Amino acid sequence: MREVATAVDIEVDKLVRLEEHRQLSQISLVASENYSSPAIRRFEGSIFADKNAEGYPGKRCVSGCEHADQLETLAIERAKSAFSCEHANVQAMSATIANFAIMNSLFQRSDRLMAMQIRDGGHLSHGAPFHASGQNFRWCFYGVSETDEQLDYDEVRSIALKYRPAAIICGGSSYPRLIDYEKMDQIAREVDALLWVDLAHTAGLVAGRAIPSPFPHADIVTTSTHKTLRGPRGGGLILCKNGLAQQIDRAIFPGLQGAPKMDLIAARAVLLAEVQTSRFKEYAKAVLSNAKALERGLTYAGATLVSGGTSSHLLLLNLLRCGTTGNEVETSLREAQVVANKNPIPFDTLPPSKAGGLRIGSAALTTRGFDEGQFFELGVMIGKIVTSASNPNRVADLRLFVQQNTRGLPLFNRKWVASGPEATE
Fold first, then answer.
1. Does the residue 12 lie in any domain?
2. Lowest pLDDT segment from 17-26, 125-134, 345-354
3. CA 408, CA 406: separation in Å to the nearest integer?
4. Which of 228, 247, 274 is the last residue before a domain boundary?
5. Which are the contacts of 181, defined by CB distance < 8 A and separation ≥ 6?
6. pLDDT tens-digit profile of 69-114?
7. Could you tell me if 329 and 342 are in contact, meaning their C-beta atoms sit under 8 angstroms apart?
8. By residue range, what is the domain housing residue 287?
9. pTM reported for the whole predicted model
10. How far is CA 15 from CA 2, 11, 20, 34, 403, in A?
11. Is residue 9 part of a domain?
C-alpha cells in the first residue's frame, strides 16, 4: 500500500515534503495555527474517511454505521465532559459553518443579532457585510473603548437595551483580553436574548482549565477544533443547553451539511480525550505564561500592544505609532522565517490590505516546546524590527535566532504527550 501511494502522485508528494520542511524550519506565530499530536494525525484520514454516515447515531440514512455510531457517541460524551456542557454536536466542518447553522436554525431574517465589530476583534461570521451572516440577518455591533481598547460593559448594555437583539455573540478572532461571561449573561437576560459565545480562539485554554469557562452562563458555544485546542483543522463543535439541542442538530443535518467526515470525528474524539489530561492542562498554562513572556519582550523593545497586553494566547501590535503597517512587518518577519499575519486594530485608519496591526499568538510555538526565555527573546527581536523597520540587521538577527532554535525541533514536542493510564482512558 505504501509503495502504491508513493507512486500515485509524485508532484503532490513533493509539495507535502516542501511544506513539511517549511513548517519545521520556520516558526509560526499565527494565533489561529497549531500542531496536532501524532495520535490525532493517526486517525485523521483513517478508514473512517470512506464511510458514509449521513445522519446521527441510531438515525443514519445508510446501513453499516454501527462503529460510526459508537465513535460519534464517544466524541459527543467526551466533548460534554471536557466543557461541562449539556449537549454537543461534533459534525460541523468548521466553526464558521457551525455559526451560520445556528443562525439559520434559531433566528428569523427579521431578528437582530448583536456582536463585536470586526475592527475591534470580532469575526467575519458575526455579521460582516461581505459574509453570508451579514447578508441574511440584521445586526447591531459593540466595540472597545478608546481609552483602554477593552470592552466597556456599560456601553454593551446600552446598545443591547437600544436594539433588543435576539442573541448577543461574544468572542472573536483578535481580541486579546478575556471576556466577562457573567456580565454578558446579565446583559443578555435583561433584554431577553440568548448568550452565544464563539470560543474558537480560547477553547483550549478553557478545556485546560487555564481561564474561566463560558458555562454555565452561555446558552450556546461554538468553536473550531484547532487553535488552542490543538486538534485537527476542518472541524467545529457546537455546545449548548439541552433545550436548544434538537433545533441545532437539525440545523447541521439536514439543514446545512450532508454526511459528516467520520475520520475527522475520530480525530476529534482523540483530541477531546487529550484536553482532559493533566499534560494538556500544563500545556494550556504554558500557552498563557509564554504569551506574557512575549508581551514583556515586545514592550521592553518599545512596541505598543493593543489594550496594553494580553490575557490569553493572542497579542495584537499597534503599528500606526511606529510609522509602519501590518503588511510591511509581516513581510519583514517572513524574510526572517517567522510567520505572522497583518490585522486591523481598533480605530484603524488603514485598509485591511495594509492594516495597522500585527496579530501573533503563543499556542503553536508552545506546542513545539519553546519556553518563556525563548518567547521573551523573540518578543524583543520582533519589537526591535517594529520600532526600527529600516534596519536590516534586525531581520538578520531574528533569522539567525530562528535557525538556531528550530534545528532538530519537532512540530509536536514529546513533553506534551500524555502517558500512563490517562492517555488511554
1. no
2. 125-134
3. 6
4. 274
5. 170, 195, 197, 212, 213, 214, 217, 218
6. 999 999 999 999 999 999 999 999 998 889 989 998 899 999 999 9
7. yes
8. 279-406
9. 0.93
10. 18, 6, 9, 20, 22
11. no
